[in-house]
Amino acid sequence: MTSIWKVDPAHSEVQFKVKHLVISTVAGNFNKFDGQIEATSEDFSDATIRFIIDADSIDTNMKDRDEHLRSADFFDTANYPELTFQSSSFEKKGGHEYLLRGDLTIKGHTQAVQFEVEFGGTAKDSYGNQKAGFEATAKISRQVFGLKWNDLTEAGSVVVGDEVKIVLNLQFIKQS
């Protein structure tokens, strides 16, 4: 029997990190997202995963930077309001380690990506809801997804790095 698990946004976060001026890292979050897992196996080894992120919910704790990230220079949220992920496989590597593969779409560009996933296990919360926890990480090239804006410093180094690290800390609630 297939079980459906919905993301619990109150106990989840979608974070990204990118180099700034090559010397430090800037982190941000997407605050609105939704996702679902469908699986028949208790260890999720046959899981199908879908995820949608509201691009406009980007938050780097700096209003001006967030507005720039929403602009056509980056996410162009007026024309591309969502980032989406659809899994193609969720392979158990051993223990609690998995490899999640699928298609990520950002700004109309779809690319195959893979996430390293740690399955934290399942537990019942104080309300009797069955929960499952995961941490997933991936690295992508922002330019491959059409996020091409950049500038150079006086010394000739880039302002924003190309590699973006994605960190997802997610809890899912089993649906009855």
Plain-language structure description:
It holds the Pfam family YceI. This is YceI family protein. Residues 4-173 form the Lipid/polyisoprenoid-binding YceI-like domain. It comes from Olivibacter oleidegradans. With 176 residues, the chain is mainly beta. The protein has one domain (3-174): Beta Barrel (Lipocalin), CATH 2.40.128. The chain contains 1 helix and 11 strands. An 8-stranded antiparallel barrel has the order 1-4-5-7-8-9-10-11. A hairpin with a 5-residue loop joins β9 (109-124) and β10. The mean pLDDT is 90.
Mean pLDDT: 90
Placed side by side, the strands forming the largest sheet appear as: 1-4-5-7-8-9-10-11
Rg is 17 Å
The number of domains is 1
CATH architecture label: Beta Barrel
Main sheet overview:
8 strands, antiparallel, barrel
Corresponding CATH superfamily: Lipid/polyisoprenoid-binding, YceI-like
Low-confidence stretches: none
